[in-house]
Amino acid sequence: MAGADSSFDCIVVGSGNAGSCAALAASDAGLERVLIIDKCPAEWAGGNGYFTAGAHRTVHGGLADILPIVHNVDPVQAQHTDVEPYTHEQFIADIMRLGNGRSDPELVRALVNNSRAAVQWLSERVHVPFTLSFNRQAYLVNGRQRFWGGMALSTQDGGKGLIAAHHKALQDAGVQTWFDTPAVELVLEDDAIAGVIVRKAGKLAKLTAPAVILASGGYEASTALRAKYLGEQWVNAKVRGTPYNTGDGIALATAVGAALTGDFAGCHSTCWDANAPSDTGDRTLSNQFTKSGYPLGLMLNAHGRRFVDEGEDFRNYTYAKFGRAILMQPGGYAFQVWDSRVEYADDVVRKIWADTVEQLAGKLEEEGLENRCQFVDTVVSYNDAVRRFQAENASLRWDPAIKDGLSTQSNGFSLEIPKTNWALPIEQGPFLAVKVACGITFTFGGLAIDPDTAGILSETTGKPIKGMYCTGELVGGLFYSNYPGGSGLTAGAVFGRKAGEQAAKLTK
Ligand SMILES: Cc1cc2nc3c(=O)[nH]c(=O)nc-3n(C[C@H](O)[C@H](O)[C@H](O)COP(=O)(O)OP(=O)(O)OC[C@H]3O[C@@H](n4cnc5c(N)ncnc54)[C@H](O)[C@@H]3O)c2cc1C
């Protein structure tokens, strides 16, 4: 291979959200020959981005600030909708709090400070069809839609809508994408990037470029790397998205001296349908295997015991760590349980119904419940704790749109594992259970980058390696242990734009 087909201004490795943002930014900044390569076949385009709910967390000034970029709110609806502003300080505090203070403060600041501009760019330049996320992030309270948890933006048709918008913008900009083309080696000459060796149609080929942007995701789809970094139990986690994110970027970059950083023992993992496929997401059902209704119910393990505080915080501050909690239970699964007061709309999951808690426990034995009596006892003592709390705090009202303080911990009685908010007795049949497992979303450890330029840092000098940039899941140091929902797509856009712009600056 030689000539026009092998020489580029910038090569982006990975066709997901982060890589797409980087490629478009590079093209918009004046680079003519921008190429995206992806190891997946064309029908898997978009990486994990395709599987998302399209949730984007950003700093914003409240409803009036974000109304101009959303497409699903008419003026009458707007009058009945409450979206509180979400400030820089809140976004920073959320990442730092959930990461137990370990996140790199400069990286976090770069993400947060550029989040609103990135979302505006996605809307105006990429034409991402943003919506207000009524069904996931708001509750109807006293006739008003109240948004909660610091996040309000989603995209029409979720990740499918997001990736379709990227695809069109890239095509219009003349950016090519080669599928079935894995990067297998990075070429460094005189301490600067010079190109990428790829496998194309079964043959190795050298592509040259003065700038390479790595956006090839984490290692969540590699069973071996999950076992190595996260622990042996993680071989049993179910892959929620693309099966092609197998840690290649880490191997490619460290082979040319890149520095690693971040939480290699940590990942984003959620409550996921126990009947979902194990090693890959499903392109049709995508995010619909998510089972995040637990704040309004209970989670019990195979021994019939609770193991987390289901009401510890709003769902989008706990959902990314509860997958791990489920994986650590006997058998690696659990049962989510509600009574008839909670509506559960999802049609994908297999629902198990019963008229009494005892009957429900009996049915769950067929699904792996090993201690039917303990299951019933757990629900009974939970109900008892809730009633005693209510008796002591008669003025408190159940409200899912705020942390309502309705708990299981009263002066007279408290549970070993509390439920801190939204605790209602599980008492009105019919009762509903679903079986959940751990779904792994993406990994937190990755490459060290310069927060201002997204340049990949050298292990030996601590300085950026000339021409090498990184964005998306592959960036390390941002998230530790846990994660505020909707931050991943925004981070990919923020550092993708930086990477693309810097690549153009360098090349020109
Ligand atoms: C089910 C699900 C729901 C989610 N929902 C949300 C949400 O609502 N909001 C949010 O913010 N985040 C969400 N996420 C997380 C989000 O998907 C990621 O943060 C984001 O998409 C990462 O983007 P990326 O471009 O870095 O990686 P990806 O989109 O995964 O793209 C990486 C690409 O690199 C390719 N690749 C890998 N190795 C090579 C190689 N050697 N050569 C060439 N190409 C390679 C892969 O094939 C893949 O296409 C969700 C994830 C999943 C799985």
From TrEMBL:
<feature type="domain" description="FAD-dependent oxidoreductase 2 FAD-binding">
    <location>
        <begin position="9"/>
        <end position="47"/>
    </location>
</feature>
<protein>
    <recommendedName>
        <fullName>FAD-dependent oxidoreductase 2 FAD-binding domain-containing protein</fullName>
    </recommendedName>
</protein>
<keyword id="KW-0274">FAD</keyword>
<dbReference type="InterPro" id="IPR050315">
    <property type="entry name" value="FAD-oxidoreductase_2"/>
</dbReference>
<keyword id="KW-0285">Flavoprotein</keyword>
<dbReference type="GO" id="GO:0016491">
    <property type="term" value="F:oxidoreductase activity"/>
</dbReference>
<keyword id="KW-0560">Oxidoreductase</keyword>
<dbReference type="InterPro" id="IPR027477">
    <property type="entry name" value="Succ_DH/fumarate_Rdtase_cat_sf"/>
</dbReference>
<dbReference type="InterPro" id="IPR003953">
    <property type="entry name" value="FAD-dep_OxRdtase_2_FAD-bd"/>
</dbReference>
<dbReference type="Pfam" id="PF00890">
    <property type="entry name" value="FAD_binding_2"/>
</dbReference>
<dbReference type="InterPro" id="IPR036188">
    <property type="entry name" value="FAD/NAD-bd_sf"/>
</dbReference>
<feature type="domain" description="FAD-dependent oxidoreductase 2 FAD-binding">
    <location>
        <begin position="87"/>
        <end position="487"/>
    </location>
</feature>
